[in-house]
Every structure is written in C-alpha cells, then in structure tokens.
Amino acid sequence: MCGIVGIVSKDNSNVVCDIINGLEKLEYRGYDSAGLAVIDSTGLRRLRAVGKLENLVNKLKINPIYGTIGIGHTRWATHGKATEENAHPMVTKDVALVHNGIIENYKELKADLSQKGYEFTSQTDSEVVAVYLQMELDNGLRPREAFRKMLQAVRGTYAFLAIFKAQPDIIFCARNKSPIAVGFGKYMSIGSDVGSISANCSEIVYMDDGDYAEVTKDGAKFFDNGFSTIDKPRVAVTDDLVNLGKGEYSHYMIKEIMEQPSAIRKTLLGNEVPKEFFDKISRILILACGTSYHAGLVGKYWFEKYLKLPTHVEIASEYRYRSPVIEDNTLVLVITQSGETIDTLEAMEYVRKNNNTCCLAAISNVLNSAISRSADFVFHTEAGVEVGVASTKAFTAQLTVLAKLAFCKNPELLNQLQNLPMACESSLLLKEDIDKLSCRIKDCANAIYLGRDNLYPIALEGALKLKEVSYIHAEGFAAGEMKHGPIALIDDVVPVICLCPSGSMFDKMFSNIQVAQARGKNIIVFTDSMGGKSFDESVEKIVLPSINQELCPILYSIPLQLLAYTVTVLKGEDVDKPRNLAKSVTVE
Ligand code: M6R
After folding, report:
1. Per CATH, domain 429-573 is 3.90.226.10
2. Catalytic site includes residue 583
3. Does the CB atom of residue 585 touch ligand 1 within 6 A?
C-alpha cells in the first residue's frame, strides 16, 4: 500500500517524466493522492494532487517543475484523509520524504517535536519523520547522520526515500517490511516494485529489512542495520517482472481474465512436486487473505480427499492473534499473489517462532517478494504481473498449483489437468452471454452466490469479485446452508447465482435451486451441457464446457470474473482501481 519511486539522473536530464512513469506502474498500490519532489537550482520543489495520478499530471502541465533528482509517491491513506495536505512528499525547509508503511511511535515523536517548537501541516504519521530529519539538520547533523539517527528513532514499517537540499545528489533509502528495489541502468532508480523501475534498468537489487542505502548517479552503497557496508546481489531484470501494459484491452482486469489459459498452461509446466514432499507431513495448515484464502478453501477439499491429510484454512489476519496451537510436522502453506501481504507475512513469522518442525511453503506469484524469500519452499504461479486490483489470473494459477499438489499421487487427475487450459479458452467465449446477463444485475443492490462442495469457495470468490469492483453487495453461501437463514434474503429481484455442474453434487444442488426458485424470480445457473438439460427457461442458464468435476473450481471461476467485470463496466465504475482498495496490502 502506497508506492514510492526515486530517480537520480546520470546525465543531468530532467527526471520528472520518469518519476511519473514509475508512479503510473505503482498506482495499483493506492490512488488516494499522488505527488513528487525534485531539487532544482532554487532548492526543493514539490507538487501534489488529490486522487488519481492523472490529476498530478494535469497540475504539472500548468506548473511544470524540473530536476535531476527526485522522489514520488502514490498514496493509500492510513493516517489522515485523502487531502492535499496529507499527500506525500512530506517537505520541510531542507528535506523531502516519501514513505510507505506505518510509523507506530509517531504520536510520541510528534509530541516531542511539537514541544521543541516544530509545526505540522498534515495528519500523517509520515510527516513526523520529515520533521524529525529537519530537527537533526537544525541540530547541526549532516544528512547522512540525520537519516541514520532517524532510523534509530522510528518504530514501525517503512520504505523511506529522502532527498536533502544540502546534498542534492543523493537519495537516502531504508526498508523495514515495505518493499524497495534499486535499479541500475540508464539512470539510477528506486521503487516499490520492479515494474516501476524496470523501464530503463537492466539489473536490480532487492533491499532487505534493516537495509539502508545511498543512491547517487554513480551507483548505490548498501548498509546493514548497524550501518556497516554490505554487498547485495544484483539480479537481471527479466520480462516476467515487467508490466507490459494493457495491450489491446481497455482494462487490466479483462486482459488478465483473458490471459488465464496461458497462465494455467505455464503454471502446469513448472511446479513439479518433489517425490518426498508429503512424506513427513501429518497435516496441512493454509494461511492466506481475500481471494488467496478462497483458493486455500478449495485446496482443503482436494487435500483431504486425495492426500487424506487433515487440512485447516485460516484467514491470516486472524491467525496469530488467537494463540493457535501448531502441531508438529504440519505443512504450513501460505498463498499470496503479491508476496507482500503483511497479515500473511506476520502469520508466517508466528509459525516460525512457535514451532520449528513445520515446513513453511508458499504459493506466490512474485519471486523475490518478502513472502517468497521467507518460505522454505516456493511454488511459483506463472501468472505474470497482475495489475488489476481484483485478482483473477493469479487465483486460477493458485488453484492450479494446489491441484498439482493435491493430485500428485493420482496420475489420472494429473492428466485431466492438462485439459484445463483448453476448457478455460472455451469458457472465455461466453463473454457475450455474460454481457447480456450483466444487464440483469447491474442495477441490483444485492446478489447471492450459491455453491456446494468444492464450488462453495467459488461462490465466496464470485461474491467477493462482484462486490469489490461493482460495489454491489454480494454474499456467497454453501447452498445447503440457505435454509438455515440466508433464504430469507430471496425475493423477486435479488439475483441468485448458482454453480451447478453435473456430477455427484448435482441432485442436491438442483433441489437447492428449486427451493430458491420457489421464492425468487432472478435465478441464474452456471452449468454444463448435461446439467443444463434439467433446467427450463424459467432460469437464466450459462452453459460451460464439460470437465472433470474436481476441476470445476478453476473453470467456474472464469465466468464469475467476467460477470463482475462486465457489470462494473456497465455501471461506469473504475474496474481496475476500485474505491478504497489497493493491490498489495502492506498494513495490518
Ligand atoms: O497478494 P495476496 O494474494 O496476498 O492478497 C490477498 C488479498 O488482499 C487479495 O486477494 C484481495 O482480496 C484481492 N483484492 C481480491 O481480488
């Protein structure tokens, strides 16, 4: 949450455009406001705007600023509303600072600084850091000493970039729990992710927690938390790390939905499960958030059925606060698209501290992310960069890895998995049918999703997808649970979206749909050709390709993503950047 970028030119060229380009790639991390600061011959110059980056770009057209060194920020508000005063960079007389994270002791620091006569113009925790640096400069310290002293004074999570009027050729950076990579190329660049700095760099260094760096046009010096110089490995920038843009599509979300057959194909190619992987394992614990949690719920059905391993799935943000008991020889599997989610990372740390017999494995879409680096074993979802805030291709790639793991002792099912990319391609052809269906949903205030067995988590995921992008309140239920309460919600208007492929659960699900139909008029059924025969015209039917019922969670996710997408576009909402959300959730 929040994206930061910094650039030092090597040939005295203006860095403002490159900062904007970097921020554009980071907008998925927050879009409450954006801002940048540069140093020119007159000193520090700053420009900020509330809302999306385009507002800052428009301001720049009227009030251009130039500089050969600069920092930028795109904000997801934590402390203080989305106003210009609270937008970064935070600037004092002699320093400009951008921050991603949360400063936990900002109140104490602020009280102390206020007592010393320093004034504040924002409600943010970050401004305290800039003012603290100013105080140390006023005390006579040089920028390096002031920055180091500040690092010893603050507590919390951070990625900081700071520039000082007194030393206009250095960007000072530091990391604790919020990501930073430093890029080497046409210019020196620093960013929250590789995509934001890769345009002109060939190699990057990932900073680790406790690292601090000084970046100049000649390169970067890295230091550990005791401020001793350290060597950091440089990694070549490869295509899979780069956000290649929207291409022919109008939104990232639809591009990423369409990329699923290829993402699944690539994910199937890799991720071989080591022969002895489950040998010493007596149970599985899955930890994840949001959509990744829903993938974990599907994993539970598969692991228990095919590996006969008791499996628990927990929301990572709840897990470590209820003193959970971790049994020996548990495989702890964390699932994440971004590899950065703080709740998941903290849950991993809890496991590490409390049981050293566990194997900690991650299913992650971002190699070198914090979660990938702290896991003992990583399965990489080959979905490529996912930019749309709503997770789509990463989800089906996560399910693909889970299926490979769960079916590793079942050659027949492993074989069936190979049919999946083609079935997904066919399901994408349903877009036109789903476009029509969207008209029935776009003006509704609520929607209900029903599934049974391994499609129950897909009902939850379908509902999450619809609500997070279209703002229609949607809930997923296990169809058999309806009669225990939620059935009261059914009336003639509310869409009841039912997942009902043929197979062992068909009859039960069919009866649940009859019960819903007896009470409502807006029943929509996702089924296959065999199942479809049982439904007449009184329900709206979407017919998917037939596939082994174990694989339906992957296939049936796709039309539900399409539905969320088309409804949102019809409503005219910003599908790639839904309000209040950010793609990487790096605050608790
Ligand atoms: O990057 P992660 O998979 O760890 O993120 C977890 C959730 O924040 C994420 O899935 C979120 O729910 C998405 N907005 C869902 O589309």
Report:
1. no
2. yes
3. yes
Residue with tokens 């203006």: 14
256 C-alpha vs ligand 1 centroid, how far in Å?
Answer: 15
Ligand 1 pocket test: pick from 192, 291, 581 the residue with the most ligand atoms within 8 Å of its Cβ: 291
Nearest residue (CA) to ligand 1, atom 12: 290
283-322 burial by CB neighbour count: b if 16+ within 10 A, else e?
Answer: bbbbbbbbbbbbbbbbbbbbbeebbebebebbebbebbee
From first to last of its 588 residues, the chain has per-residue pLDDT tens of: 799 999 999 999 999 999 999 999 998 888 899 999 999 989 999 999 999 999 999 999 999 999 999 999 999 988 899 999 999 999 999 999 999 999 999 999 999 999 999 999 999 999 999 999 999 999 999 999 999 999 999 999 999 999 999 999 999 999 998 999 999 999 999 999 888 887 778 899 999 999 999 999 999 999 999 999 999 999 998 766 666 688 899 999 999 999 999 999 999 998 888 889 999 999 999 999 999 999 999 999 999 999 999 999 999 999 989 889 999 999 999 999 999 999 999 999 999 999 988 999 999 999 888 899 999 999 999 999 999 999 999 999 999 999 999 999 999 999 999 999 999 999 999 999 999 999 999 999 999 999 999 999 999 999 999 999 999 999 999 999 999 999 999 999 999 999 999 999 999 999 999 999 999 999 999 999 999 999 999 999 999 999 999 999 999 999 999 999 999 999 999 999 999 888 888 777
Does this chain's domain 248-418 share its CATH topology with 429-573? yes
CA 291 / ligand 1 centre spacing (Å) = 5
Q: How many helices (H) and strands (E) does the chain have?
A: 19, 25
Atom of ligand 1 nearest to the CA of 338: 1
For residue 393 the two structure tokens come to 């291709």
Cβ of 181 below 6 Å from ligand 1: no
DSSP labels, 486-544: GGGG--SSS-EEEE--SSTTHHHHHHHHHHHHTT-S-EEEEEEHHHHTT--TTSEEEEE
Could you please state the CATH topology (level 3) that the domain comprising 3-241 is classified under.
Glutamine Phosphoribosylpyrophosphate, subunit 1, domain 1 (3.60.20)
What's the first-to-final CA gap in the chain, in angstroms?
11
Length in residues, the chain: 588
Query: Hey, what CATH class is 248-418 in?
Result: alpha beta
Q: How far is CA 27 from CA 3, 139, 201, 306, 334, in A?
A: 7, 37, 20, 41, 26
Spell out the domain ranges in the chain: 3-241, 248-418, 429-573
Answer yes or no: 110 catalytic.
no
